[in-house]
Write a structure and sequence with these properties.
This protein is of the alpha/beta class and 243 residues long. It is built from 8 helices and 11 strands.
């Protein structure tokens, strides 16, 4: 992999970006060396992980502002690293680097939980602009700790739910399903979307695993309350909304 632009020690910008702590997960030693050098010369602090498992451990334990993740990694591939981080509620912005540049590959990376995607070879100036943009947005937007739809509320820190101040006991998968529905409140969520984002499955959307969990969830959040919030949109999917 080659970085296509010259790296300088000064990064000119009208609005200086505060120093960020960045984790680079890249197994190509030469590429990683150039990347770390460029980030350091641009005023940032960069750590390196040479494989997916080490990268995952550092990303979970370290306080990073941005992650730069190569897709093709030993021990654990880049997309699996990202999916695992999102499952563990690690919200650190991720820039995916990959020689896989087709539109479908980019879509797969973004759906796995990546925030941006840059194909190799790349210009370092573009990479720097992208990660600094991700860092600004992440800093400017405080992370939600609670989501509410009508009188239904979930706490993302304690992983608990309640409706009309009445606690609702949910299994981990039920909570993840409810969280995804509530993050998309007012929008139709298809079966395929649920399989990919709640179960990480990529197979026949006609499986009844969704029906079973939706039924259980509806019994818990709607049965003893009024009005119902979880709706089946015939021929399309499901929606949570407060009329």
């Amino acid at each position: 992999m080659q970085i296509t632009s010259h790296i300088t020690s000064q990064h000119a910008t009208e609005d200086p970006v505060p120093t960020m702590r960045i984790l680079v997960i890249e197994d190509d030693r030469e590429a990683a060396s150039w990347l770390i050098k460029g980030l350091s010369e641009s005023g940032h602090v960069a750590d390196l992980a040479g494989d997916g498992l080490d990268g995952l451990a550092l990303a979970c334990d370290g306080n990073y502002d941005v992650l730069i993740v190569d897709r093709m990694l030993p021990k654990l591939d880049g997309l699996s690293v990202i999916r695992t981080l999102r499952q563990q509620d690690v919200t650190t912005p991720v820039l995916i680097l990959s020689a896989l540049a087709d539109v479908d590959e980019k879509v797969e990376g973004l759906r796995a939980g990546g925030d941006d995607y840059l194909a190799k070879p790349y210009a370092f100036s573009e990479l720097l602009a992208r990660i600094e943009g991700l860092g600004r947005r992440h800093t400017a937007e405080p992370q939600k700790t609670k989501i509410a739809v009508g009188d239904l509320e979930i706490n993302l820190l304690t992983r608990t739910a309640s409706r009309s101040d009445t606690p609702i006991v949910l299994q981990p998968r039920e909570f993840k399903l409810l969280e995804y529905l509530m993050r998309n409140a007012g929008n139709v969520v298809t079966r395929t979307m649920l399989l990919e984002n709640v179960w990480d499955y990529h197979f026949d959307p006609q499986t009844n695993v969704i029906d079973v969990h939706i039924s259980r969830l509806r019994a818990k959040i709607d049965k003893d309350f009024d009005p119902p919030l979880l709706h089946t949109i015939r021929g399309a999917g499901y929606m949570i909304r407060a009329d």
